Amino acid sequence: MEFQIDPTSRLPIYRQLRNQIREAVARGRLQPGARLPSVRELSRRLVVNPNTIARVYTELEREGILHTRPGLGVFVAEPKSELTRKVRRERLREQVDQLLTEAVHLGFAAHEVIQLVKERSEQFQWPTSSRKSP
Amino acid sequence: MEFQIDPTSRLPIYRQLRNQIREAVARGRLQPGARLPSVRELSRRLVVNPNTIARVYTELEREGILHTRPGLGVFVAEPKSELTRKVRRERLREQVDQLLTEAVHLGFAAHEVIQLVKERSEQFQWPTSSRKSP
Amino acid sequence: MEFQIDPTSRLPIYRQLRNQIREAVARGRLQPGARLPSVRELSRRLVVNPNTIARVYTELEREGILHTRPGLGVFVAEPKSELTRKVRRERLREQVDQLLTEAVHLGFAAHEVIQLVKERSEQFQWPTSSRKSP
Amino acid sequence: MEFQIDPTSRLPIYRQLRNQIREAVARGRLQPGARLPSVRELSRRLVVNPNTIARVYTELEREGILHTRPGLGVFVAEPKSELTRKVRRERLREQVDQLLTEAVHLGFAAHEVIQLVKERSEQFQWPTSSRKSP
DNA sequence: GTGGTCTAGACCACC
DNA sequence: GTGGTCTAGACCACG
User: Fold this and answer.
1) How many CA atoms lie within 13 A of B116 on its CB side?
2) D58 touches strand F (CB under 7 A)
3) CB of D51 less than 8 A from some CB of A
């Protein structure tokens, strides 16, 4: 996996990296069980303080996306969602409204947005029916 | 227009207000030419520092969403996007990928996301200009 | 609120503090809306690095127990649980089994444990029926 | 006895195994006098470093739960607690408060916790000694 | 080797 | 004033 940090971005480094890992997992480019670079290695590679990398890994572990095996490294966790259906639904709705707001201001038409969502969704790895979710 | 500040949100006040105005415009609840409350009035109504309100108006003016007519007030601007099609398309794609990433981690299926986008899009006011689909 | 750190404990400082805040909230000694000491103040009081205090506050915010109002301080959040009933049940069961294991090894009888749970439970602030939980 | 190591757990291996043995003894699934697998054998079975197994046995021996008879193997010790009633009581109280704190934050009611403690307690093997209730 | 914790001190955004 | 982010560098626990 290639991760990239833009130091000129107003988005904090740890958020940039966190987003990239989240997306890589969602696309299936990082499969469950895959090992991520060690804190120290990624720190050297991105020229970022090890604490910052560790923070990203810790946060993603608390989100249930990664898991740490002490002494061995950090790995992609099996997907699971422990949140209520209601909460999950609400979060999704917020994201959708945010997308639509942006789309209107960018001057797109509704059908263009829907079309793009359909296209891009093919590049993501959607949960199978056996997925553990409420 | 009723704006609401949620003090329990981790989102800064000025971002909450900015988002609400952006969304109100995108939904057509604030039409081009509509006058917004004065900085002083909104400041009183929301119990928020006037500097914070002024900052929001300034930022939205820089984005081309609002327009200040000195001595008269702040108004919703005519929609226009000075960005090239390529840049706008790229921004939309980023937003879509972000939505899809979130959706996967929340455990939704692709068709559920598409369905929700369709539903919610009916509540927004899409441009009527001569813009064509890609 | 009086918080106390035992530097000789094998439990990390941030965990000690985190547990104390969690318990204070659960007992109702810290009510929703109450303001906690600022990072810097608590840092001085406990002679602990500000980063360590900030870490505790951040973690408890992500657990939904505290919330931060930038520039104003950190406050106790309204109680809510976004987890599935199943997950919550499972977590409780684990805690109970852990307690019972400990009790057996300490040489207590079952009725003594149950009696103590009843007694101590009166000192905690249990959710009301209107509590938002799945 | 079947012991299981969950490599996805954030709990160190030696803690997982230690907890499982403690719990098995408390439930009576490992009776006093029972022989545990040798370090070497358990190491092979769980695919875990022998040092890690040895560490667990050593710790549990220090706790008085296991007893090593050189050349013969490791055995479950007779239950005894050398702690004063006061210390034991205090430890139990801490565990109970920890459970109740967790329960409140998970959104349970007091009677639900008490009910679960009663239910689960039937699966444990309580001391039959002459100890009396307080 | 791995990650986890803590300190010290800097700079920024928010109100 | 408040919290948020980042760096540098130390020490410990784990396997």
Assistant:
1) 22
2) no
3) no
Tell me the average pLDDT across A66-70.
Answer: 83
Tell me which chain B residues have a C-beta less than 8 angstroms from the C-beta of C61. 10
Beta strands in chain C (DSSP E): 66-69, 73-76
- Residue A67 C-alpha, separation from nearest chain D C-alpha, in angstroms: 6
**Measured distance CA(B110)–CA(B106) in Å, rounded:** 11
Let me know: does B35 contact B52? Beta carbons within 8 Å: no
**C contacts of D103 (beta carbons < 8 Å):** 92, 95, 124
D26–C contact, CB cutoff 8 A: yes
- Strand D66-69's sheet: what is its strand order? D35-36, D73-76, D66-69
Domains of chain C: which residue ranges?
13-76, 85-121
Q: What's the CA D9/C1' F2 distance, rounded, in angstroms? A: 37
Q: Is the CB of A133 under 7 A from strand F?
A: no
The dihedral built from the CA positions of residue A19, A22, A23 and A29, taken in this order, carries a sign that is positive
H-helix segments, chain B: 13-27, 39-46, 50-62, 85-106, 110-121
* Residue A56, both tokens: 């990203």
D107·C26 Cβ contact <8 A:
no
Does any strand F atom come closer than 7 Å to the Cβ of A12? yes
Contact between residue B25 and residue A105 where contact means Cβ atoms under 8 Å apart: yes
For residue D131, pLDDT beyond 80: no
Location of structure tokens 């749970």: C117
pLDDT at residue C133 in the model: 47
Question: Predicted confidence band at C2 (pLDDT cuts at 50, 70, 90)?
Answer: confident
Q: What is the mean pLDDT of residues C110-131?
A: 91
β-strand pairing of B35-36 with C66-69: unpaired
When pLDDT is cut at 50, 70 and 90, the band that residue D82 belongs to is confident
Report the gap between the CA of C15 and the closest CA in chain D (Å): 13
| Three-class secondary structure of residue B13 per DSSP | helix
Q: What CATH fold (topology level) applies to the domain D13-76?
A: Arc Repressor Mutant, subunit A (1.10.10)
The bases of strand F with some atom under 7 A from any protein CB are 1-10, 13-15
Rg of chain A on CA atoms, in Å: 17
What are the CA-CA distances from residue D94 to residues C96, D71, D101, D120 (Å)? 13, 39, 11, 19
Whether pTM > 0.90 for this model: the answer is no
B41 touches chain A (CB under 8 A): no
* Nearest alpha carbon to residue B75 among B61, B55, B56, B62: B61
Q: B89-122 b/e with 16+ CB inside 10 Å = b?
A: bebbeebbbbbbbbbbbbbbbbeebeebbeebbe
Question: CA D108, C1' F2: Å apart?
Answer: 35
